[in-house]
Amino acid sequence: MQLEGRPSGARGLPLVLMFVSAVWLLLPSSAIAQTATATTPPPTQATTLTPATTPTAGATLTPQSTPQATAAPTTLPTAATAIQLPDGTNCQFAGTGATAVFNGQRVNYTCGTRSDGGQTVILDNPTFQNGVWNVTVGIVDTVNNQPSLRSSQTLTMQFVTAELADKTTCTFVTGTPITVENQPMSYTCGRSEEGLLGTFNTAQPLWTAVKVVIQQSGQTATVQQRETLGITKAVGAEVAPAMQATSFTLPDGTNCQFAGTGVTLSFNGQRANYTCSNPAMVILGTPTLQNGIWNVTIGNVSGGTITSSTNVQMTIMTVALLDGSSCTYSATGAQTLVEGQPMNYTCEPLTALIGDFNTSQSLWTAQKVVLSSGPSPSPVVQSRSTVGIGTATGVPPVGTSPAPSPAPGPGQVAPAQPRDDRYFNETNFRIANDSFWNFFNSRGGVETFGFPVSRQFGFLGCPVQMFQRLIMQQCETGPVGLINMLDPDIFPYTVVNTSVFPGPDDAIKNSTPSVNSPNYDTAIIEFVQQVVPNTWNGAPVNFQSTFFSTGGLEIWGAPISNPAYDPGNRDFIYQRFQRGIMHYTTGQGTRGVLLADYFKAIMLGPGLSQKYGASLPADLNAEARDSRFYTQYCPGMNLWLCRPQDMSGSDLVYAFEPN
User: Fold this and answer.
1) Are the beta carbons of 95 and 60 closer than 8 angstroms?
2) Beta carbons of 355 and 341 less than 8 angstroms apart
3) What residues are paired with 329 via a beta bridge?
4) In this structure, what are the phi and psi dihedrals at residue 262, rounded to the nearest 5 degrees?
5) Are 72 and 10 in contact (CB under 8 A)?
6) Residue span of the structural domain in which 330 resides
7) β-strand pairing of 569-576 with 255-258
């Protein structure tokens, strides 16, 4: 790389680089003190070149006792993000050469000299977890010309502003961010429609972020512009550490905390999951919700053992969320439905919690929505997020609740289907809709879609028909289209019948050409040709030729992962697209995974799947239990739906009844 500003004939650069890479090995305390008083401002842009003869606070330190290191003015390239700690201390990347290592943690950033002579440093790289950043800050002294770690602590912080290489400053959104392409726009950059999507990429010294300009239409936000930019500086503010478990206050005022994942007491096969402020009480198992009432099993402790148990019923009246908001139970009368889910808690004007809590982990979570209109008659969701529940406060049961979903009963006999050329003996279903039939035949038939595995039925407001691989839909008078099978609400699962599919790759999704970009038609084809191979690691996967020969973008959507081996079987190679997963088997070729067939099994549930000849593997059954589509098929009930409030606009009458 050419170094700007280097005088001709200067010969000190190799020694400068040598000393920069070994600064911590022979660092005198006088050099530390001098770097703290340097007047040259720290580098902020990836392209800025800083003269090595002027030490910069927080930059890699050059021993002043070595004349060769400063013999000639030179410049060193910098391409790293600067970090400002919550106390205002500025930290610069220490370079990629040798620095001190303490307890296996490398000194990655130097932050200047403290008043007591110690050097503030950042060990390793900041990490992002549970919505906050964890930064390990150390204090280093120089003892006998050797660095010595005095102390270290992990700060929990949020980067409240991010300065980008294009001079833009972006600010962290303190409320519920807008969700775009299933990612939060957690920072806004001067205007509400411009912000940073997803999390920072910290894989390189110069962190990067995806900056987008969006356009909102109702509850939908679409990306109009997208670019990846370097982050020149991230400014931190300290926050409380994220909670790892939900705590409870019982109706009698007893406080109970999660007991951890280690060994605890048990009673009748139930583990003591929570210990309480009353030492004579523990909570056995996890509280469960039935008919709108929470049931809590209390273990009575005596002499260090659980001697008996009792059941306490309660309504969780208030919840404190990890984002700082508090929500109050509001489902004591007729419930407002938001996108088919009950609005059970209100948090503030136009903000609410919908559906049931997810209690599968020690930290419970809730679905929080921001509405663009009031709670009646038709609330519209502006944005949604999953938020951890810090505390839940119970009171004696209040209000009334709907009756539990009845068990499926006998339904009416489905009308016979004509046995003509549209009827498939393999599955005993027929394609009756002319538009679906034409779409099926013009796009590869069975080879593309598989056999039909349902009749036409209503699904979330549109007529649909399921095939083994895909689901056709036709909304109102529009053209026939396909449901995005791998949408997070439909089929987010990656483990099916012990096969492990690749998950979506954010880097690939973020680099996909926008449909609003110039020359999109050409750009998306080039993108597919670049990402989707015919040969991968020597295997003739033929993913690209399969893509173009079976409908291309219309059938598969864009690729959202790279090819990947099945971790348990290297004869299987998969690649994930928006609407399907290609599966290559050594010696057999490439086919699409029968995703829609598995989704049908989820709707049937384990009991009816066996009766109807569908396959619901145990691993998929366990993953899908929290889905709103799980065990929804109830022949004989209203609309043949077990829980119609979870599938607004749906009608499953006769949906899976063969001839």
Assistant:
1) yes
2) yes
3) 345
4) -80, -165
5) yes
6) 247-395
7) unpaired
273 and 126, same structural domain? no
Closest CA to 233 of 284, 288, 163, 300: 163
Does the residue 223 lie in any domain? yes
Q: Looking at the whole model, is its pTM more than 0.85?
A: no
Do the domain assignments include residue 239? no
For residue 165, what pLDDT is reported?
Answer: 92
Domain count within the chain: 5
By three-state DSSP, how is residue 627 classified? coil
Nearest to 104, CA basis, from 138, 81, 145: 138
Angle at 38 (CA atoms; ends 33, 41), nearest 5 degrees: 140
| Radius of gyration, alpha carbons of the chain | 30
Q: Where are the alpha helices (DSSP H) in 244-342?
A: none
Residues 6+ apart with CB under 8 A from 152: 102, 105, 123, 136, 137, 138, 139
Contact 256, 283 (CB under 8 A): yes
Beta bridge mates, 558: none
Same domain, 226 and 271: no
Secondary structure class of 534 (helix, strand, coil): coil
- Collapsing DSSP states into helix, strand and coil, what is residue 19? helix
183 in the same domain as 37:
no
Strands (E), 336-455: 337-338, 341-348, 351-358, 365-371, 381-395, 423-424, 429-430
**Domain presence at residue 404:** no
| Residue 411 counted as domain residue | no
| Positions in the chain whose pLDDT score sits under 50 | 1-78, 242-243, 333-334, 375, 400-409
Q: Do 510 and 456 lie in a common domain?
A: no
Question: β-strands 341-348, 365-371: how paired?
Answer: unpaired
Mind listing the pLDDT tens digit for each residue in 4-48?
Answer: 333 334 334 333 333 333 334 334 333 333 333 333 333 333 333
pLDDT at 335: 61
Q: Are residues 440 and 522 in the same domain?
A: no
Tell me how far apart the alpha carbons of residues 59 and 81 are, in angstroms, rounded to a whole number: 12
C-alpha neighbours within 13 Å on the C-beta side of residue 195: 24
Identify whether residues 604 and 626 lie together within a single domain.
yes
Strand partners, 194: 213
Q: How far apart are alpha carbons 183 and 188 in whole angstroms?
A: 14
Domain boundary among 231, 255, 270: 231
587 and 440, same structural domain?
A: no
Q: What is the pLDDT of residue 293?
A: 85
Give the C-alpha separation, 581 to 564, whole Å.
11
- Amino acid symbol at 594: L
Pair 55, 86 in one domain: yes
Alpha helices (H) along 434-518: 434-442, 446-449, 506-511
Closest CA to 233 of 101, 370, 90, 125: 90
Q: Convert the pLDDT of each residue in 396-424 to its tens digit.
A: 887 533 333 344 445 567 889 999 999 99
